[in-house]
Amino acid sequence: MRLHRHRVALVCLLGLLVVIGAAAFGPIFYPQSAIRLDYAAINALPSAAHPLGTDNLGRDTLARLLLGLRVSLLVALYVETLNVLFGVTLGLLAGYFGGWIDVIVTRLADMLFAFPGLLLAILIAAVFGEAVTDQLGGVGRLLLVAGALSVVSWPLMARFVRAQTLVIREQEYVTAAVAVGAGTGHVLRLHILPQLLGLVITSSTLNIASVVVNEAVLSLLGLGIQPPDPSIGKMITDAIPYLESNPLQVFFPSFMLVLIVLLVSFLGDALRDVFDPTSR
Amino acid sequence: MFALILKRLISLPFVILAVTFLTFIVGYFAPGDPILNLMGNQRDQAIYERLRTLYGLDLPWHEQYLRYVVGLLQGDFGLSYRFAQRPVIDLIRDGLPVSLLLGLNALLFSLALGVPLGVLAALRHNTVIERVIMALILALYAVPSFVLIPLLQWLNYQVYLARGSALPAAGWGRPEHWIMPTIVLAAASLGYIARITRASMLETLGQDYIRTAQSKGLRWSRIQWVHLFRNAILPILTVVGPAIAFLVTGAFVIETLFSIPGIGFLSVEAISQRDYPVIQGTTVILALAVVVMSLITDLLYVVFDPRIRVNA
């Protein structure tokens, strides 16, 4: 069973590396413009000139898909970085020290959880979107989207880390370390953080699935990545009116999105088994 | 148990207060002047001052917030910027029944399909049937609603080509408008409900009292109804809370993409138009729904399983 699980994890990891490689190096090997309009090929099916066809403005689907993929993965990377920075730090402090830090962190997380679903992220992206794009351009918008999505997902990470820290804190080796006079920083760094590594890697990996989907939702509501830059979510909804002439336009980005969600979920589940064999 | 209910009931207004405060602050620090937006090309200082006073924007922030909260307590959600000073509560009153109808349809649909699927998967444990159901659950999890919508519309179009008539692609009003949004909205919670049902059934199947009932020679159908379902169904009731949170989230995308005039659509429209009073109003209503549902879920846990002592 374990071996089988590892094989699944390995396949998913390889698949994910291929997807990441395509996003990172794809545009180099496929130097078609993602925003050039080709009026001779509007809503075209796949051909030699456009391997995955074109959209309603004659833009190359493969080129747009590769760039959109890059956006999705970059946002996921930024969100997970922020989650680890805020979620792990605050969860660790709340769990280890308790007291007023714990009260503040838990209440803050509760407050953010009370917002239904993506609402807070939608709100932040909508209110500050225009100003950020004016000031900082496309990269700023990308960071804003990542920040908005992180606001609604770090509390979960903090909650996991806090719960785990509460357990580790009571372990005998921690008591022993404190008893022989180890400083707080030393205990946190050498005795608690390493024990959290598995949990953090697993939940970050699983979280990527919802980040990728949520980024697509923000973009299709018109609040994420702005046209003409491609985003997978916007590609899907923009292509819906042209389903009748070219359903493949919807299919390719949808397939890519579902593929990422599945790869990341299987990998996350397998990682959980690897890091925590007792959880099954 | 009474203490728990009391504790949660006391914390409820504070959570809602926190939500209103956060929404208010985001609106307060938002770039741009809503009154200038409202006036369009008109530039009349006297009108500007009058509108500012009408919306209370000439007050310092804490007085604005105080006024807003006091208004909320009296059922006054303020005035909309976009709809020429219409009260926000009117807009919410128009949208809420639509969202409730859609959400209730989707919830009933996902329960009616999800619970039997989960039960079937557990009763046919380690067979092809279970694997097919699990694959379906996984597919429902991995395929987001905005991917499911074009898929359904494409199928709908194929039906149209074949038969000459099909479901309407968007809009609201007649019952045939309900079908596609209900399916898409139900899909998200369907997989979740089926998964929890299966897990609960499998856990109950492994209990000693099931084996005891079997070993004393009871008919399997009797064991199923008296021992199995009765115990397994309790945890399933409690998934309704999270499922409703799913429905609220799904409503944003689905109401927008199907042009359904519910709370989600109202909220998304207001956000893109920077109609802050409407944004605040819809946020408070939706947050209230989520908080109340999670409270009910916690209560159901305690009511149905007296062994659980929630110390939260």
The overall strand count of chain B is 0
Separation, N- and C-terminal Cα atoms of chain B = 11 Å
Q: Give the fraction of residues assigned to helices of chain A.
A: over 70%
Mean pLDDT of chain A: 86
Task: Describe this protein's structure.
The complex is a heterodimer of chains A (280) and B (312). Chain A has 280 residues and is mostly helical. The model of chain A has no long low-confidence stretch (mean pLDDT 86). Chain A starts with a helix and ends in a 5-residue tail after the last helix. Chain A has helices spanning 2-29, 61-97, 99-114, 119-169, 172-179, 184-220, 232-239, 248-275. Helices cover 76% and strands 0% of the residues of chain A. In chain A, helix 1 packs across helix 8, helix 2 (61-97) runs antiparallel to helix 6 (184-220) and helix 3 (99-114) runs antiparallel to helix 4. Chain B has helices at residues 2-28, 34-39, 45-54, 61-73, 88-123, 128-142, 145-163, 179-205, 208-215, 220-237, 240-257, 263-273, 276-304. The mean pLDDT of chain B is 82. Helix content of chain B is 76%, strand content 0%. Chain B is flat, with a radius of gyration of 24 Å. Chain B is mainly α. Chain B is built from 13 helices and no strands.
